[in-house]
Design goal:
There is one protein chain. With about 600 residues, the protein is of the alpha/beta class. It has 3 domains: about 1-235, 4-Layer Sandwich (Glutamine Phosphoribosylpyrophosphate, subunit 1, domain 1); about 245-445, Rossmann fold (3-Layer(aba) Sandwich); about 450-605, Rossmann fold, CATH 3.40.50.10490. The protein is about 35% helix and about 20% strand. The protein has 20 helices and 26 strands. The strands form 5 sheets. Strands 3-2-4-1-10-9-11-14 form an 8-stranded antiparallel sheet, covered by helices on one side. The longest helix is centred in the C-terminal third of the chain and has 20 residues, at about 400-420. The N and C termini lie close together (about 10 Å). About 55% of the residues are buried. The protein binds 5-amino-5-deoxy-1-O-phosphono-D-mannitol. 5-amino-5-deoxy-1-O-phosphono-D-mannitol binds near residues 300, 349, 398 and 400. 5-amino-5-deoxy-1-O-phosphono-D-mannitol binds near residues 349, 399, 483 and 604.
Amino acid sequence: MCGIIGYCGPRNATQILVEGLKRLEYRGYDSAGIAVGLNGSLKVIKTKGKIKELRQKIPGDMISSYGIGHTRWATHGVVNDINAHPHTDCSGNLAIVHNGIIENYESLKNMLESEGHIFHTDTDSEIIAHLIEKYFNDDLEKAVKEALPLLKGTYGIVCIHAKDPGRIVGARNGSPLVVGIGKDEMFLASDVTAIIAHTKKAVYLEDGEVVFIKPEDFITTDINDKKITKEIEQITWELQEIEKDGFPCFMEKEIMEQPESIKRAMSGRIDKELATAHLGGLNLSTKELINLERVKIIAAGTSFYAGMVGAYLLEAIPRIPAIPELASEVRYKNPIIEKNTLYFAVSQSGETIDTLFAMKELQRKGATVLGICNVVGSSIARDSDGGVYIHSGPEIAVASTKAFTSQITVFYLFSLLLARMRDLSFSAGEKLITDLISIPLKVENVLSRWQQLKEMAIKYAHYKDFLFLGRGVNYPVALEGALKLKEISYIHAEGYSSAEIKHGPIALINEETPSVFLVPDDELREKIISNIKEVKARKGKVIAISVEGDEEIKDIVDDVFEIPATHELFYPFIMVVPLQLFAYYCALELGRNVDQPRNLAKSVTVE
Ligand code: M6R
């Protein structure tokens, strides 16, 4: 959940580290720090707060040729200057930054304290510095390799030593690290956004690997010092994709990008001639696809809601039983692996620890797990048995938006592919394709009417509790609408199937609790209208997201946002966008930090 950057080379490391941290700030923004080599020793500067605060503490003339930096999302120890990374050893010559959690830090700390090491922080990470110090004998790489076997837990560690200047050592176990290769300079980072301003050449470390870098080259080994040859990969993201590009914040930019990102998710994957879809990378034969009896989808947060939509589609289109499950629950419930069952691990970042570890548990028991990921080279993308990239481009805002619509695009394509192998006719396939292709324009239509959603948000942002209600394929969209509102505006919101309100939530309804109803023009419309009337009868305010031309609803509810009509299975695309914008403008109205909401971080890499 934190961000790491390291640099060695001819340029000023201080500046490169701070710029890299700024780009990594979405990974964690409680506190930040850097350590650089300066005149034979290390200079460490760290602070509670954002990179802006860190910048203010760094002297303008602090020029160095190597260093490391970190932006933190606190796990062990409160947010303060001392607990911020980098952490140093007793001598002050060694500095480390760490992502992940060291589970046995207490016993290691006791051991190290009994040997005379003095600790200054409440973090689990500080023990890494002292443990490496214990083994250091003028060779940092060797000391790291001796220390690593003692650590239990997850880590991406990057460290430097004043007595081994100009070099950086990194090690990975469960937290990503990528080496960036420049011309006579090297980078080491937790994520490519920190380095793409400088290089497009990357080497992704695997768990159990250690890298030793100096400006002119790098060496990768396992912890037993066995050399590992790595492939140099090309980073496909462009620098401009990780910049705000004139938008006030990343979330607005990413919401507005959706017509394009949805098109990218389907690009090259639709076969009009055969009225089907092509998804390279599934690594499954036609026979295996035809024989599938069940699909299970594991994910967290917004990706889980996309998975719920996916499960609905798989049951509705190819008629395959499909079950979405929270990855965090799957991992510990001793999952039963049934034959002819395909699993999907859905994750924007590809690094969510719950999803990654659930996937590994399933694979260990013999399951085939495909990834639906955005970040190329991420852990889930690499360790899955195949999969589909959503190609959304970088998603920087902590609240996920464009990834959701791209993830469901992939589920539409996969459903179409399976259905055409089973009993979906050519013309029904053609119709699905036509509907899918029309979605970006319809999303554009919704986006162009942002002003109306802004006015609605200004009217409602001061309410303290909301209900979001939808049914069928739009039920997960209601859950996603509630999640968006709570995570960026801090307004309490719950999502339910509107059919469920009579089983409890209706007790919450009064003049102070507005409900947002999703009202498509499908067979459940009448039932939803009845639910709206039940809420109105109890003086609840109602906002409806309804289909153009639905005049009846306007007389029943307090506010309406109209969306273009589509095939009933495609409403999630068009229903979710107004909810994203509504949450966004509520958060703005309340003066929240939209891109970096409190207590959150972009990818959840700790349990
Ligand atoms: O990277 P992932 O898609 O695996 O992330 C899953 C969740 O952590 C993520 O969707 C989270 O819920 C977002 N903050 C939602 O906006």
